[in-house]
Amino acid sequence: MSEKSILRKNWKLLLNVISIAALVLLVYITRHQIGSTIENLANINGWALLLIIPIEVINYHAQAKMYQKLFLVVGNKFKYRYLYAASLELNLVNHLFPSGGVTGISYFGVKISGSKNNVSGGKATLIQLMKVVLVLISFEVLLIIGVFSLAIVGRVNELIILVSTALSTLLVVLTILAGYVVGSRQRINNFFGSLTKGLNWLIHKTLRKNPETINMIRARVIFDDFHNNYQQIVKHWRQLGQPFFYALLANFTEIMAVYVVFLAFGEVVNIGAVILAYGVANFAGLVSVLPGGVGIYEALMVAVLAVAGVPAKVSIPAIIMYRVVNTIIQLPPGYYFYHRSLNSARTNS
Question: Structure pTM?
Answer without folding.
Answer: 0.76
